[in-house]
TrEMBL record:
Name of protein: Histidinol-phosphatase
Pathway this chain belongs to: Amino-acid biosynthesis; L-histidine biosynthesis; L-histidine from 5-phospho-alpha-D-ribose 1-diphosphate: step 8/9
Species for this entry: Vagococcus silagei
InterPro entries per UniProt: Histidinol_P_phosphatase_HisJ (IPR010140), PHP_dom (IPR004013), Pol/histidinol_Pase-like (IPR016195)
Family: Belongs to the PHP hydrolase family. HisK subfamily.
GO molecular function (one): histidinol-phosphatase activity
PANTHER family, per the entry: HISTIDINOL PHOSPHATASE-RELATED (PTHR21039), HISTIDINOL-PHOSPHATASE (PTHR21039:SF0)
Keyword line: Amino-acid biosynthesis, Histidine biosynthesis, Hydrolase
Stored Pfam families: PHP
GO cellular component terms listed in the entry, alphabetical order: cytoplasm
Amino-acid biosynthesis keyword on record: yes
GO biological process terms on file: L-histidine biosynthetic process
PHP domain segment(s): 6-189
Length: 261
């Protein structure tokens, strides 16, 4: 039986991680895939481009595949901004990624986790964040998984009631576009566990299911090996409570259903 494995993992090939591939391979015997950051004009890096060097990345994976006699899948996490659309497409077009994550991290001016978002009115923050996320799903030519739908909410305290009132019409639009393009919805452990946004997932998952959404993934968003599969039991339990029995994995960007254990 195919076993589900973590599909949101970072190594030193991402700008914000120093972790090695070797440490992940020693952490798990499951299939390993790493999903390195691509963010052009990254506010978190003084607006420098955060671009994984694919040749260096691929060579590193090949060395570890030979040493450990295990296949490692290639992945990328695209931080989407409309103004970077052509550069993103040019970068990923000729590279054999097994899985492409689609994220909304920034808007070209700020990262949505910058402290300044605490000064925004909640209605403004939700509107700007989800309008950009919807546009990313509409415009991204190829992607497999929408990550941390709540990334822009990590810095603020928001009740489920206020979130529903302000965000539900955006989420319905977002989920409609995702379902039409066969994107999977990620349960993100960094959001769920570390930022304690589990209540937003409790609200959003049944909405997504009610609209016909069936594709889900779990991602630790690990930047260190010890966070591999962080929160997987807790997040799986939420899915089971909502009648979800399967997750999806991607290889060569082809989805395979895997039972939730």
């Amino acid at each position: 039986m195919t076993v589900y494995y973590d599909q949101h993992v970072h190594t030193r090939h991402s700008f914000d991680s120093e972790e090695t591939i070797e440490n992940y391979l020693q952490q798990t015997t499951k299939q390993l895939v790493t999903t390195e950051h691509l963010d052009f004009e990254n506010p978190s890096e003084d607006f420098k481009d955060s671009i994984p060097n694919f040749n260096r990345y691929n060579d590193d994976l090949q060395r570890h595949e030979e040493r450990f006699e295990r296949q490692i899948l290639r992945g990328i996490e695209v931080g989407y901004v409309h103004d970077h659309k052509n550069r993103i497409e040019d970068f990923i077009d000729d590279k054999p990624y097994d899985v492409i994550l689609l994220s909304t991290h920034q808007n070209g001016k700020i990262d949505f986790m910058d402290p300044v978002v605490k000064e925004f009115e909640l209605e403004r923050l939700i509107g700007e964040y989800y309008e950009q996320m919807i546009r990313s799903v509409e415009e991204m030519p190829t992607a497999n998984i929408l990550t941390h739908f709540d990334y822009g909410m990590r810095r603020v305290d928001v009740s489920v009631e206020d979130y529903q009132k302000l965000a539900e019409h955006y989420l319905k639009h977002l989920f409609k576009e995702m379902i039409a393009k066969d994107f999977a919805l990620e349960l993100n452990a960094k959001s769920f566990v570390k930022y304690q946004n589990d209540t937003l997932y409790d609200y959003a998952i049944p909405l997504y299911v009610a609209m016909g959404g069936t594709r889900f993934t779990l991602g630790s968003d690990a930047h260190v090996a010890e966070d591999y599969e962080l929160g997987f039991k807790e997040m799986s339990d939420v899915l089971k409570r909502n009648g979800v029995t399967e997750l999806v994995t991607f290889k060569q960007q082809i989805a395979t259903s895997v039972p939730i254990i």
